[in-house]
């Protein structure tokens, strides 16, 4: 059997940096949900981007990239040691075939979308994100299948009503077409709520040591200028079930506090930050930044040793991980600027014919958008 559905197909060094950026951005959509495990696949087809793969797929388990393919390397490769150790050549050959087939369909799709929207030139991107979630305490399962174009939602599958939601008028024709395909709905539901869950459980079991680990973060402070908010930044933690808050004189405060989102690092860990404004330096000693991570004691750091943009980066003993933060920020900005979008999802009608296999576990819907 194969983990992705490709038709009911279940399953360069030059591009390596861009590949990592893409993984970072995709992982940015992995939410911090208390006891949920998740398996998802992201497909991205792009046009008009020099020296960037026209098609990329990424497999993600519990926020960790586990597999990768692009139109330059033309091969599905493991992104975790445990995936390399537990899955043999036949598995990776099948995954490569699925991705090659998906690549063909998505290239057709991006041209179809451009024609429908009367777009001829420029940078454009068609995306898809699908997968499943499993609560290992309640055994509750859910699935998702979403498509996007140029960073905006285009079509989303509602598993409960078994209909497609089209937030864009240009997607209504495709929505109506797909809503009539009741057999496809049944196949998608079967994959998302059963086959995908089976593969998710297998991956969790195979990668338990890595996926169920706990990494504590490095916590540091930064202030861009003397009048700017003070940022408490935590990086290098895992899993992403984390929270942060500020305390003054031992009491949690909420005024003048701005909480940031949890973002992925390219090494499989996460980072987050929380800002506190309107505090004079002479009162810093009254404040503490508290980092909470599932399974470990809270990390309480008193507000002192605040780094400033005026300080020289990379000095010995420098507590602020400028390289990691700048790398993620620049990576995000680079891909957003180049592609002009946020990685999301997307979907296609009859063009993605699935591979000749009864095994499924990958894409619940490899169809070309028309």
UniProtKB/TrEMBL annotation:
<keyword id="KW-0732">Signal</keyword>
<protein>
    <submittedName>
        <fullName>Major histocompatibility complex class I-related gene protein-like</fullName>
    </submittedName>
</protein>
<dbReference type="InterPro" id="IPR011162">
    <property type="entry name" value="MHC_I/II-like_Ag-recog"/>
</dbReference>
<dbReference type="Pfam" id="PF00129">
    <property type="entry name" value="MHC_I"/>
</dbReference>
<comment type="similarity">
    <text>Belongs to the MHC class I family.</text>
</comment>
<dbReference type="InterPro" id="IPR001039">
    <property type="entry name" value="MHC_I_a_a1/a2"/>
</dbReference>
<dbReference type="GO" id="GO:0006955">
    <property type="term" value="P:immune response"/>
</dbReference>
<keyword id="KW-0325">Glycoprotein</keyword>
<dbReference type="InterPro" id="IPR050208">
    <property type="entry name" value="MHC_class-I_related"/>
</dbReference>
<dbReference type="InterPro" id="IPR036179">
    <property type="entry name" value="Ig-like_dom_sf"/>
</dbReference>
<feature type="signal peptide">
    <location>
        <begin position="1"/>
        <end position="34"/>
    </location>
</feature>
<dbReference type="GO" id="GO:0005615">
    <property type="term" value="C:extracellular space"/>
</dbReference>
<dbReference type="InterPro" id="IPR037055">
    <property type="entry name" value="MHC_I-like_Ag-recog_sf"/>
</dbReference>
<dbReference type="GO" id="GO:0009897">
    <property type="term" value="C:external side of plasma membrane"/>
</dbReference>
<feature type="transmembrane region" description="Helical">
    <location>
        <begin position="323"/>
        <end position="344"/>
    </location>
</feature>
<feature type="domain" description="Ig-like">
    <location>
        <begin position="217"/>
        <end position="289"/>
    </location>
</feature>
<dbReference type="InterPro" id="IPR003597">
    <property type="entry name" value="Ig_C1-set"/>
</dbReference>
<keyword id="KW-0812">Transmembrane</keyword>
<keyword id="KW-1133">Transmembrane helix</keyword>
<dbReference type="InterPro" id="IPR007110">
    <property type="entry name" value="Ig-like_dom"/>
</dbReference>
<dbReference type="Pfam" id="PF07654">
    <property type="entry name" value="C1-set"/>
</dbReference>
<dbReference type="InterPro" id="IPR011161">
    <property type="entry name" value="MHC_I-like_Ag-recog"/>
</dbReference>
<dbReference type="InterPro" id="IPR013783">
    <property type="entry name" value="Ig-like_fold"/>
</dbReference>
<keyword id="KW-0472">Membrane</keyword>
